[in-house]
Every structure is written in C-alpha cells, then in structure tokens.
Amino acid sequence: MTRLLESYAVGRWYAASAEGDPLLDAATGEEVARISSSGLDLGAMAHHARTVGGPAIRELTFHERALLLKELATHLTGLKDELYELSLRTGATRRDSLIDIDGGFGTVFSYSSKGRRELPNAHVVCDGDLEQLGRTGIFMGQHVYTSRPGVAVQINAFNFPVWGMLEKLAPAFIAGLPSIVKPASQTAYLTELVVRRIIESGILPEGSLQLLSGSAGDLLDHLGVQDSVAFTGSAHTAGILRQHPSVLHGGVRLQVEADSLNCSVLGPDVTSGDPEWDLFVKGVVTEMTAKAGQKCTAIRRVIVPAAVADEMTEAITAKLSTITVGDPGEESVRMGPLASLGQREEVRKAVEALRSSCDLVHGDPTATSGFVGDAERGAFMAPVLLRARAGAVEPHDVEPFGPVSTVMSYDSLEDAVTLAARGKGSLVGSVVTHDPAVARTLVLGLAPWHGRILVLDRDDAPESTGHGSPLPMLVHGGPGRAGGGEELGGVRGVLHHMQRSAIQASPDMLTAITGRWTRGSQRNLTPEHPFRHSLATLAVGDTIVSEPRVIAIEDIDHFSEFTGDTFYAHTDPEAAAQNPLFGGIVAHGYLIVSMAAGLFVDPAPGPVLANFGVDNLRFLTPVKPGDSIRVTLTVKQITPRSSADYGEVRWDALVTNADGEPVATYDVLTLVAKEA
C-alpha cells in the first residue's frame, strides 16, 4: 500500500489511522501517497507552538534567528537532487522546480541576510524617530515593534509546495512566531519531505515548525487574538475563512492571497521591429507555460493597442506552437501537466466560460493527443490563447488557473487602464514600453489596482526577473480580488507579524526599554576615551565631551580653496551679508563635521576598526568666524555581528557652539572589535 503522509505535531511524527485520500502523479496518474489528518489533536498543536516553539524562538535575537535560517537554507540546498526528483511527480519541469525549490531556498537566504543587515541584534525594533511630547524633553514617545506570543498558521496552495511554505515561514520565524504549515493536499508529499528534512536537521528550535498533512479541521477554533492565518488559494475559500468566528470575533489576523487576473500591457510606442515587442511575446508565453500556467502571478489578460492586436496575436501563437507538452521527466518537454485531472477539468470549464465572449485562436483545451505521455492518465493540456470580442466581460471575471491567456485591445492609455482595473485588483501587472511618458501614465493608472508592477524595456531586460516572479525584497500581494494581503517585502514581511506599540516614557526609560540610547537620557562620561573600549566593555550611554575649537576665517578660506566649495556664503562677505539666513560669512557644514571628527577621534590603533558611515546629518545653527564648536559623542546602539569578530556601534554626535546651541546632529557608524 502507498505510504500515508505524516504530520509533525507536538514534537513527533503522527500517522492517521484512516486509509486517507490518494494523491496521484500529475503525469502518469500513479498513486504517490495518501493523506489524512484524522485523529490529530489540532488544539494540542497550537498549544505546543505557543508554549514550546514561541518562547524558544523569542529567546533568540533577530540576528540569531537569521543565522539559523542561513544554516537551514544551506542544509536544504544540499538536498536539492532528492527534492527535484520528487517534484517531477507534481507535474513540474526542471525549470518549474527551480522556481519552486531554489526560489524557496533563495527566499530563506534573503531573509537571513536582511534580518542581520536591517534589524538590530536585539528583541525590539524601533520604528521611526522620537516624538517630543512635552516642552522640556522629559516626556517622549517612541514607536516599537515587539514579538507576539502567538502562532502563525500557514495554509498554502498546491502550485508551490516548497516556496509557498518557506516564503511564509522565514519572516514569521525572524518575527518570533512559530509556524503550523498546512499544505494543499495535492502536492503535500513534497512539502512533507522538506519538513521532514528540516526536523531531522535539528536546526530550528522544537515547536517552531509543525506540519499538518490533511484537513485543517477545527484548527481555527483553537486560535486567538495573538494568532494569525496566512492563506493562499481561491477567493471562495478565503471568503469562508473570513466568516470564521475566530476571525470575525476572536481577533485572529487573516492574510489572504487569492485569485488574480494579472495583466500585461503593451505600450502604443512598441512595434514589431522593437526589442520590446519580443520581450512582450516572450513574457506572455513564459507566464502561460511556466508551472503550466498554475501561478497566481501568471498573465491572464494580454492588453495591446488595437492597431497591432492581430499581429501580436499571431506572434504569441507562433511562439506557443513551439511548446512541447508532456511528462516533465522527458528531455523534450517544455511544459508539464496540470496538478491533477480534476484541476484540468476546472481549467477546461473556465475556458468554456471565456468562450462566451472570446474566440479561441490557439490550442484545444479538450485535446487528448499530441502530448509526450498518456493524456488519459496524465493531466496534460495544450496552452490556450483566446481573443476577446468587443465588450467582453468574462476575461475580467473568470480565472482559468492553467496555461490560458486572453488578448484584448485598447484605443488609448486611459482605455488600457480601464481594462486593467476591471480585474478588480491583481497581484502583478507589467508594462512593456520604451517611452517614459507612456510608462508614467500607465503605472500611475495601474498602481492602485496592483501590488507590484514590472516596467520592462530593452534597458532593464538583461537583469529582469520577469513578470511572474515574486521577490523576497518586494511586497507580494494585491488589493481587492487578489485578497488585500501583503507578504514578503523584505523586513516589511517581518514587521507585519509583529505588534507596533507607541511607548510614552522618560528618555531614561525609553533607553532601558529599547536598548538604544535616547537623547535626553543619562550619559556615562567615561574617564577613558570610548574608542579604547571593545564591545566587551563598551556600554550604551558611554560618552566623551571634546574640548572646544575656534573656527577661524583662515579655516573657512582654506577649506574653500582645498575642496573647491566656493559657495558665496563662505567666500563673498558682501553677498553673504545679504543672505537672510546667515547675515555674513559662515563655515561650511562639512567643515564643521570634519573638524568635529578631529575633536572626538582617538588616533591610536585600538578596537575601533573603521568608520563606515554617517546617518541623519542635520545642520541646525550657522557657525561664523571666531565662534567655537565642541562635540558630545555618545554610544547610541551596539549591534554585535554574530558571524564576525566585530560589531556595529552607532554613536550620537551633537555639535554645539560657544552658547551651547546645537550646530549639527548626526549618527556616526563604526565597526568595533568584540575583544580588545
């Protein structure tokens, strides 16, 4: 008998006692596995995640979590051959598997990198600048992000059994949330294998990842206000989830990525002799055939100028005619089968609905021959291209989740935007044009209806990742019909899982809470220069106050001549006197910063290895010849790098004049050794 897929729950692998439902090879119809969650205690899974997984993750800093993800992605990369072999049974070609498997690993690597580069090596993230809430500065406000003590339930679609799981898992893990993964049954055997290899590795803390193979049953009944559900799938199922009492009344956060009638718009400037013409044709055909069109980002609506609609239809048809469909294990095959015979039947029904207002121009959705493989057992289907008739409604309402696209024409850019908007919200749209004015008009019109827009032309094509590729650093989601959700987007995807709170307190309290020195809180005037301290002995609040230095007119003249910055406010007394802001010669702002560095730098070799930047520089009060400046330099934030023998130190620099007025403020960024 075929193996029954197992769930990983409450620290062990669980096999249901039921026979389970059969899962078939998409190309051969052979039984791959069976699936059932009968008898699984879903409430215990949620409890285990909250009480075991969550605390274990949140004990780690953001950087420590990110390093575990790097280790995990490296480990999984070494297992690719095994995963690619099993992926064939889902109907995926090698190119399709690369998108799913390598794309998933790449997303984990990306989140590991961003977690270490863009988040502190801490447990709290400060959001935005301080807000002074009182007159004297003793009452301040600071927005912060903190981890929630809940569980992230991830309900994934069948088309990306690896990437779909990992793109949700990675940001949730860095945010401090344990995950319960519920893959779509049809391809769950590939997800189960990945989870099995993750659990075997022992890299992630116990309870941080659990797998539910089979029906989700009453899982949502066990969720509460600190928990979240991220769903990818049909709008119909999303509607059912939105009506669940835990979502309606229990405070469970629901994130939805649903149906999406994505479009690609050809600019009116493009003709058949232009590079953009070929890019457009290639993009449409790629999105129709990659994963057999079973991508939530695939191009469903091909929107082209009326003047070239016939020619473009012929060009796409010619390209589609070269596509070989069949068993993905065969070398000659360019497009594999749909995920199942049932899925093929759904796509055929959608095509039939589209034909009420569209003409079939390429492909026979009911064909049973011409494939590399048995079309009775394998879910093979030829790519189908339709041409919308005037006033067609169905292409804007019906999503054929397979290798199907519809060409429609427009007469003006306004008309093109209107057609795109009739999709009622999409994950992604693309604009192919080499005319900046066309690009601006279309993007501004399309943006309210799309989560992401690709503008493609000859210039960016060599590095473009294509219309249908969600990237970990860019948001993935869309308004309206597309679900209204938003995933990925770099650190945005992490913060989405966290709670933002406004903290009102004194500067000292904010420093204690955030771990970052707050202007106005206590400083520790150290007898030894802070640059003599390694990370082992340096502390937030350590401060040095420099001796004053007079800025002479000779300094200003020399700086002007040496740098070539001869702006009149520094070199022409008569013109400078007429300036309403200065009323006479003033020192260059960068002269002030340069001299400030000379006042606070300790020149001898020591733990400070390098200065790698200045942030938030502001010039506040002009400095005139004869005035003096001094610098107060305070350790603002310490971020050890887990993978190096040094860390980052952010220093608060305050430059004042002889009257104590602030002349300049900025952050100095240095790399400092962990040990002296």
TrEMBL record:
Entry-linked NCBIfam families: PaaN-DH (TIGR02278), PRK11903.1 (NF008868)
Signal peptide: none
Descriptive protein name: Phenylacetic acid degradation bifunctional protein PaaZ
Organism (species): Nocardioides astragali
SUPFAM superfamilies, sorted: ALDH-like, Thioesterase/thiol ester dehydrase-isomerase
Stretches assigned to the MaoC-like domain: 546-642
CDD domains: ALDH_MaoC-N
InterPro entries with a match to the protein in the record: Ald_DH/histidinol_DH, Ald_DH_C, Ald_DH_N, Aldehyde_DH_dom, HotDog_dom_sf, MaoC-like_dom, PaaN-DH
Taxonomy, superkingdom: Bacteria
Keyword Oxidoreductase set for record: yes
Family: Belongs to the aldehyde dehydrogenase family.
UniProt keyword annotations, A-Z: Oxidoreductase
Domain Aldehyde dehydrogenase: 22-441
